[in-house]
Structures are given as structure tokens and as C-alpha cells.
Amino acid sequence: MSRLVGRLAQGALLLVVLSMLVFVFAELAPGDFFTGAVLDPRMSEELIETLRLQYGLEQPLHIRYLRWASSVARGEGGFSIAYRRPVVDLFLPRAAHTLMLAGASMLLAWIIALVLGIAGAYRAGGWLDRSTLIAVAALLAIPELLLALLGILVAVNTRLPLGGATSLDYASLSLGARLIDRIEHLVIPVTVLALTSLPVLVRHVRTSVLEALDAPFVRAARGHGISGRRLMLAYVLPAAANPLITLFGISFGGLLSGSLVIEGAMGWPGLGPLVLESMTNQDLHVLLAGILGVCAFLWVGNLIADGLLVLIDPRSGD
Question: Angle at Cα 225 formed by Cα 224 and Cα 227, nearest 5°?
């Protein structure tokens, strides 16, 4: 348990320090949300200055940070100047869509990685192992954006929908039709996002299983006539579990950060388009929520991995 408590403290401190750094870097960046407004003939200099004062952009850095922190404490998460509403109202619905996409992608990627990695390691050097290694090497060389464009090409040439999480007539559909509609909208983004993480997962699973197969106690079990499914389930997989559980936590955060690019390219209404928009128009509190959200998800993934490690081996929590 001491390890989990330490992780909680480290994560909380990391989020605080990261929030301070974002404020500092935003201060160093030229301009603010209203910089582009000077090009609008309807916006006078007096009006722009009034808006800056209204939103506290003229206040010192530490005052603005404390105002944001107090807003977080009230559950608002800051204020979006672009949308003129609390950040939490924007963040939570989009975070739910991002978690839906990343969770489904992680499930698909891990299922494929476990099947291919275990099968390839069990018969290392066989045709399946060689084919898998060639495929993941080729997949690793393809940029995420190109995979997204290929996904768009598939959507154009099939009946699978792309853009948005539901169809326009979603509210009028029956419960079963709504479920099918959700799944259809998830198919291409989930597949593309799963493919981006698959090469790393397959290689780690294969390596972990190979190391477990070469362990002395596994060789001893083979010497006693234990083989096949019993050897894998009772000896090999438990030995390979610890590094894979750690990788599970890391991959969760990695998928979330990777999903931001995929969402923007494929029109998925998650955090990606919102964060990219906030970077463009310098909507600081929204950008801060997106950055801290990704870090928090990575933190949660590591906590889940640590918890699973404690369940498997209680000594790892000391």
C-alpha cells in the first residue's frame, strides 16, 4: 500500500507543478485570446482593453493562477473565454467520448497483441512469428496521421460513418438501433487508434513471454512433462504478467495522448479538437484542462497497474 500512497502523492504534486508551468509558458508566449481581435473592425481598442480587464488578463501571473485554482476548487475548472462558460461544462462530455474511444481501442489492441505475441513467442521463428514481426515493423513506420487518412479513405468507400459519435437521427432511434449506431461510429476511429499502439504492445508481449519461457522454473516444468496450455497458463503467463501490467498502465495514457491527433483528423468529438482549438486561440483554461486531463489519465493508468501488481504480488506494494 505504501507504493500506491506514494504514487498518489507524486501524481498530485506533478499536476500542481505542471499547471504552474503551463501558466508560465503561456505568459512567455506573445499575445493572448484577444490579440487577433485587433483585426476585427467591429472591435475598438477601448473594447478590447475592457474585455482584457473583465477576464483578468491584465492581472499579475500569480493572481491569475490563484483565481484559476480557486475555480478548480469550486468544481468549475476555470473559464473558457471562447465559449463563455465554465471549462468543466466543455471538458466532461468530451472527456467521456475520449475515454470511450481510448478504452475500446486499448481493449482491441491488447486482445490482438496478446494473441499474436503469445503465439509468436511460443513458436518463435515460425511463419506466424515472422509474419507478425514484419507486419508490426511496417505498421510502426506509418505515421498516425497517415493511418487516420487511410481510415477516412475506408469510410468513403464503405457504409461506415465517420465524423461525430452518433448519427443526426440518433434521438429518434430505438435502444438497439442506438447501440448499433454507436458501434458503427466507433469502428474506424477505434481500429486506427488501436493500430497506432499495436506494434509496441506486440513486441513487449512477445519479449515478456520469450523471457518467461526461458526461465529456469519453466524449463524445469517442461522437464517434468508439463507442456501446452497448462504450461502457458500455470507457469509462463504468470511470470510474464508483471511487465505487461506495467505496460498496460503506460499504454492507457499513451492511447489517450495519441487519440488527440486521431480525433482531430477523424472528426471525433473528444478532447482532441477542443485542445487543438484552445491552442490556436490561446484559450488558456481549456488548454490547461486538456493537458492536465491527459496527465491525470496517465496517472490513473499507472495507479491501476500498481493496484493489479499488488493483487498479483502483495510484496510489490511495500
Answer: 125
Residue 121 and residue 11 share a domain: no
Query: Are 78 and 117 within one domain?
Result: no
Residue type, position 139, single letter: L
All 3 cell numbers of residue 290? 486538456
Helix (H) or strand (E) holding 117: helix 87-122
Residue 197 to residue 106: CA distance in whole angstroms: 8
Answer yes or no: are the C-beta atoms of 206 and 126 closer than 8 Å: no
Contact predicate 287/278, CB 8 Å: yes
Asked whether residue 75 falls in the same domain as residue 174, the answer is no
Q: Which domain holds residue 157?
A: 90-317
Tell me the three state secondary structure of residue 49.
Answer: helix
- Residues 119, 262, single domain; the answer is yes
CA 205 to chain centre: 20
Do 15 and 94 belong together in one domain? Answer: no
Question: Among residues 33, 51, 9, which one has the least CA distance to residue 287?
Answer: 33
pLDDT in tens, 215-273: 888 888 888 777 777 888 787 888 888 788 878 877 776 777 777 778 888 888 888 88
Distance, CA of 93 to CA of 77 (rounded, Å): 14
